[in-house]
Design brief:
With 254 residues, the chain is mostly helical. The chain is built from eleven helices and two strands, in the order αααββαααααααα.
């Protein structure tokens, strides 16, 4: 591949960046996950009983794993690419003979790497509290990577438009976190009143979490095919938008 050196350089830099500061990037999700399983799974879950025929602890495991993938794939790209702008070494990328799609692929793959690594750490912690037998490994792996890809792309777009460090924290705090909690991580949408079920189905994270849950324990509130179509469609849209923003130099060349 003609631009493989450029791609692996960007990707290697991204992986070294988040692994070098592993106490900030890998340790916190492990501690947070243990608290989730202890409080919601053990203390509260034993009083809730079964959800769709499985224990409450088993029911929340897929959602908590995917929630960590979402937040860390997003935050890795948005913080890294904005830092590139803030420290003014984005100019080195722009003047280098590297196509925009290689730049985008390098940063997004860095976000995917962190999202997948954090997801594996959280999955390992979850095995201390439950003994889930994964039903569909292929489905689990595909949803894992597609979700990390989608939110890495979203983080890239956020970084392109960001003008300050406040701008890169608004979306995660006020959009991603509420949508993740309302995406059926801790409950089934079938438990909601009919009106709120329809509102919940407008949340794209609901489809990813349920597809991942179906792959792990065989339970879902939504059609799996629809979940894949929606996720793939959003990824295609975000790729097109990211490449257009890079081509026009929006937030970069002005």
């Amino acid at each position: 591949m003609r631009y493989s050196v450029a791609f692996w350089t960007i990707l290697g830099k991204e992986i070294r960046r988040f692994t070098r500061i592993w106490p900030q990037t890998l340790l916190p999700p492990a501690i947070t996950t243990a608290l989730y399983f202890l409080i919601f799974g053990k203390l509260i879950g034993e009083r809730i009983g079964l959800v769709h025929g499985v224990s409450y602890m088993d029911y929340i495991v897929p959602g908590i794993i995917l929630m960590s993938v979402i937040s860390h794939s997003y935050s890795n790209v948005v913080s890294s690419f904005y830092s590139t702008k803030f420290q003014h070494h984005i100019e080195e990328l722009l003047v280098a003979p590297v196509p925009n799609y290689v730049i985008l692929a390098g940063y997004v793959c860095g976000g995917i790497a962190r999202g997948v690594l954090v997801g594996l750490v959280v999955a390992g912690i979850s095995m201390l509290f439950t003994k889930i037998q994964v039903l569909h490994w292929d489905l689990v792996c595909v949803v894992f990577v597609l979700t990390a890809t989608l939110f890495a792309l979203a983080g890239f777009i956020n970084a392109v438009f960001a003008d300050s460090f406040d701008d890169i924290s608004i979306i995660p705090n006020f959009v991603l976190t509420p949508l993740s909690y309302l995406g059926g991580v801790f409950y089934s949408v079938a438990m909601l009143p009919e009106v709120w079920q329809q509102v919940a189905r407008a949340n794209p994270i609901l489809y990813m979490i349920n597809a991942f849950r179906y792959g792990m324990i065989g339970v879902s509130d939504v059609p799996i095919l629809l979940a894949f179509e929606m996720t793939a469609g959003v990824i295609a849209l975000l790729i097109g938008l990211s490449l257009w923003l890079l081509h026009k130099g929006v937030g970069i060349k002005n």
